[in-house]
Structure to design on (909 residues):
């Protein structure tokens, strides 16, 4: 429950699209997300903070569709009972996907990049929507989450408002009074659609995973604020593991990193080098490239083979042009993109 | 036919029955004694101002009563209409205030028919009180002897060879309730040593570990282990339910989650409920106990629940709880729960999405299922934007495997990391100890786990919040209260033998050996370090230079001693 003041006569109620991208997502998880989205929308609309005509968009980037036609029909019917329009974009054909990735750099075929493109595609089709809520499918927003984020966006200087993840989330710092933060994750984050379009959407760089950081920094470089809204909570389905079995995504508790963590390290270094180039942090880029080059050869070679696209490999880290004011908004900490709280 | 010419004593089931009649009807009236035998209670009732009439199948008893001046008649109690006619004849228009049936119900072959006929009779007589006395087949002596393979019937007593029905307290309650009887008073007759307390066997002795163990097990289940006769008074309802037994709950969920809140931290409660709404296994219900005296609080919490999606909100029942301490809402939750298992969640703790799923996958219906928690430091309201937030990373501080001895020393199982089989909890009448200001969950788990054992899932599915600032119970009561309460519970447990799961012995001895070896090694390390420091001092330049001074000092001390001896 969040303390959001009720408004009786809102000047204009923003129209919202909540969107997610499915990638090998189980049907029950889709329904869980849907249940949460419907409840948080109902709460926000009931307080007059958003328009009641919510749009839900799901894009599927899985090798085979996560949802059957019947499942889509069921979801759409359930949405309709709440006055919600639901759209599902099935996976594109493999040949079409390959065409998109041709020439897109080594990261273009990664799952993260496919998700980013899919978000952009369903955002582009969100006609007359004022707010986009970019969401992961393995989450359940608390009932008050959307109302709280919508309230944060009433501040005209705020371009992005990010919900806090429970039971675990990144320990990145934020301003205790204003909520300003370095970047917003994409578990459940509200973005002004105009701002999203102004900066070119999510897929604007040769990144594997950290499109969230890139989007936030581009938005901040364009003069908007990115705020963390801890009273808007979203349950993110991250499991705990201790010794042995790894479940993804997981929170590691004092164990040696497993293979998944090692692979993630390689991807993280790649993205760090790309972001460092774009945001004018030469020393950071050199350090990331040096560590990437020092990773175990066999593993590196496997990654290179797996990511070979258009004659290039994952080790071919792109060097995008620096963006204006990039160095002013970027925060490169020892191993991340924001100071940590603890 | 057995000889039931038993004398009256106030310290007997008969005495207790007469006491019940006197206490319930101090104005006198007629008492009808069904299955009266020789009418042992006739004179005491008459002396108390009651008119006594009796009926029995045994003509000898009836004749004897007649010879003592009491109205009595022969009748077969299995013939309901004959019994009714006979009783009405004996009453001759008078109104009965009570019907007694002492040591008779267990002789009637068809209990439902007997209770049905009894109900009809009592309604026809203007609803007098029914007083029953029935032997307890679950007396500790019988239970103990059954364990060692003994079943000794006798001429009279608890296992009278002519008994055709056997009653536990629960059966008596259930059967009477099913036929429209409401218990209004009880004065059970207790005998710690019954007529079944033979032969001399360690299992019967209160002084042997085996006997103590059997007593402990029996006493944990209910308090009727030493009841020799159930002596209870009932009122008949106007309509007879016709023997309908309570409907078996067929739609019970796997898990009842008892959430404890005082309704004063809405944001935390919202987060805890969000964790539950996001479970991957939805085979559960939520019993949301709102521990607050102000009824508005429960209303606010209900409104909060209704903001969730219908699938989840429909699983939540809000239960207002008044008064009492920390245990009161937990007990209210136990009463309201319908699930096969019960788990608990405080409103300031969180769980992962597979919390229910992991319990469900491991549950076997008999044992406690245990998961693990991580600790996480949290702080409240660090700024205007937040009600609480994490102040540290998750830390895994709890053992993967439950060990009762370790548990007794320090709790390794936070309240939201175990699920208890509800049927066992109910069978044991187990409740949280409301006299304990803290550690009530540890105590509950201790008492239950001694019998059920614990099944470790190994899964880490819970987050236990350690408050850096006041808010949690640890801070609000102080460490001295914690220690005192913990110690008092240990003393209480120590009154019983300690039941350990198999394979505990070697673990205990090996653990102790390892501890002793560690202590020894530590001492040896200290000794070696001391030797090394001493050697370093003796090899130092400073030691060499000060040698003359030490020698001079030694000489002076010797001279001093010699001087004292000379005096």
């Amino acid at each position: 429950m969040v303390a959001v003041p009720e408004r009786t006569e809102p000047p204009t109620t923003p129209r919202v699209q909540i969107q997610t991208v499915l990638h090998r997502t189980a049907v029950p998880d889709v329904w869980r997300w849907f249940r949460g989205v419907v409840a948080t929308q109902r709460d926000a609309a009931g307080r007059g903070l958003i328009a009641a005509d919510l749009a839900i968009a799901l894009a599927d980037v899985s090798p085979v569709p996560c949802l059957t036609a019947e499942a889509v029909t069921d979801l759409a019917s359930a949405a309709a009972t709440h006055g919600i329009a639901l759209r599902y974009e099935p996976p594109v054909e493999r040949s079409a996907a390959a065409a998109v990735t041709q020439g897109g750099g080594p990261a273009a075929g990664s799952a993260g990049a496919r998700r980013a493109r899919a978000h952009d595609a369903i955002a582009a089709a969100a006609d007359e929507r004022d707010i986009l809520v970019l969401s992961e499918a393995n989450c359940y927003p608390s009932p008050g989450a959307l109302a709280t984020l919508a309230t944060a966006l009433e501040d005209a200087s705020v371009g992005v408002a990010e919900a806090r993840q429970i039971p675990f989330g990144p320990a990145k710092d934020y301003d205790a009074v204003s909520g300003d933060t370095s970047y917003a994750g994409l578990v459940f984050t509200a973005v002004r659609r105009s701002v999203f379009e102004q900066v070119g959407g999510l897929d604007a760089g040769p990144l594997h995973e950290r499109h969230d950081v890139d989007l936030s920094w581009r938005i901040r470089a364009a003069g908007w604020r990115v705020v963390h809204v801890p009273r808007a909570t979203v349950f993110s389905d991250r499991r705990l593991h201790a010794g042995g079995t790894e479940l993804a995504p997981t929170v590691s508790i004092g164990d040696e990193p497993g293979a998944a963590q090692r692979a993630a390290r390689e991807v993280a270094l790649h993205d760090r080098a790309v972001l460092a180039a774009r945001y004018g942090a030469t020393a950071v880029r050199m350090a990331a490239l040096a560590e990437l080059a020092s990773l175990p050869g066999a593993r590196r070679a496997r990654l290179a083979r797996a990511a070979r696209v258009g004659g290039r490999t994952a080790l071919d880290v792109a060097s995008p042009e620096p963006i204006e004011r990039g160095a002013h908004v970027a925060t490169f900490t020892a191993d991340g993109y924001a100071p940590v709280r603890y | 036919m057995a000889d039931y010419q038993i004398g009256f004593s106030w310290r007997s089931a008969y005495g207790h029955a007469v006491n019940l009649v006197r206490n319930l009807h101090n104005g006198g009236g007629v008492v009808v004694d069904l299955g009266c035998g020789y009418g042992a209670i006739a004179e005491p009732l008459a002396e108390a101002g009651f008119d006594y009439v009796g009926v029995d199948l045994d003509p000898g008893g009836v004749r004897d009563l007649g010879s003592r001046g009491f109205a009595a008649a022969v009748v077969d109690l299995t013939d309901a209409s004959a019994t009714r006619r006979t009783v009405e004849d004996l009453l001759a228009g008078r109104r009965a205030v009570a019907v007694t049936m002492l040591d008779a119900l267990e002789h009637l072959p068809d209990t439902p028919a007997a209770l049905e006929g009894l109900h009809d009779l009592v309604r026809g007589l203007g609803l007098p009180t029914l007083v029953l006395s029935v032997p307890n087949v679950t007396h500790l002596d019988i239970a103990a002897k059954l364990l060692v393979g003994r079943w000794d019937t006798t001429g009279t007593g608890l296992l009278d060879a002519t008994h055709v029905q056997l009653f536990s307290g629960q059966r008596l309650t259930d059967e009477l309730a099913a036929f429209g009887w409401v218990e209004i008073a009880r004065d059970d007759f207790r005998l710690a040593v019954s007529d079944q307390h033979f032969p001399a066997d360690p299992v019967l002795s209160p002084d042997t570990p085996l006997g103590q163990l059997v007593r402990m097990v029996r006493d944990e289940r209910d308090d009727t282990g030493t009841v020799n006769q159930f002596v209870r008074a009932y009122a008949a309802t106007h309509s007879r339910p016709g023997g309908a037994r309570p409907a078996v709950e067929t739609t019970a969920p796997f898990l009842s989650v008892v959430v404890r809140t005082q309704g004063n931290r809405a944001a935390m409660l919202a987060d805890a409920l969000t964790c539950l709404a996001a479970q991957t296994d939805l085979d559960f219900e939520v019993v949301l106990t709102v521990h607050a005296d102000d009824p508005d609080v429960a209303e606010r919490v209900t409104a909060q629940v209704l903001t969730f999606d219908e699938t989840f909100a429909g699983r939540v029942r809000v239960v207002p709880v008044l008064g009492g301490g920390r245990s009161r809402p937990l007990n209210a939750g136990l009463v309201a729960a319908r699930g096969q298992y019960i788990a608990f969640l405080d409103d300031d703790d969180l769980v992962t999405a597979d919390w229910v799923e992991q319990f469900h996958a491991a549950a076997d219906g008999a044992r406690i299922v245990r998961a693990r928690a991580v600790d996480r430091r949290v702080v409240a309201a660090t700024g205007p934007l937040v009600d609480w937030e994490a102040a540290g990373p998750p830390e895994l501080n709890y053992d993967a495997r439950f060990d009762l001895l370790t548990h007794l020393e320090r709790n390794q199982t936070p309240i939201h990391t175990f699920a208890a089989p509800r049927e066992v909890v109910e069978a044991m009448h187990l409740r949280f100890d409301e006299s304990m200001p803290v550690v009530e969950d540890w105590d509950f788990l201790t008492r239950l786990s001694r019998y059920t054992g614990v099944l470790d899932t190994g899964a880490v599915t819970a987050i236990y919040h350690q408050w850096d600032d006041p808010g949690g119970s640890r801070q609000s009561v102080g460490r001295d209260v914690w220690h005192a309460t913990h110690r008092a519970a240990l003393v209480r447990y120590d009154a019983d033998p300690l039941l350990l799961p198999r394979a505990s012995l070697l673990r205990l001895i090996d653990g102790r050996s390892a501890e002793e070896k560690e202590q020894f090694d530590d001492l040896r390390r200290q000794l070696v370090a001391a030797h090394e420091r001493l050697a370093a001092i003796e090899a130092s330049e400073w030691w060499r230079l000060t040698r003359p001074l030490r020698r001079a000092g030694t000489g002076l001390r010797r001279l001093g001693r010699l001087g004292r001896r000379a005096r």
Notes: Residues 24 and 62 of chain A are 5 Å apart (CA to CA). The beta strands of chain A are 16-22, 55-60, 85-89, 131-135, 139-141, 158-166, 188-192, 225-236, 239-241, 250-252. The interface with chain B takes residues 1-2, 28-29, 32, 35-36, 38-39, 42-43, 139-140, 142-144, 164, 166-168, 171, 176-177, 179, 228-231, 233, 235, 237-242, 251, 253-254, 341-342 of chain A (CB under 8 Å). Chain A has eleven helices and ten strands.
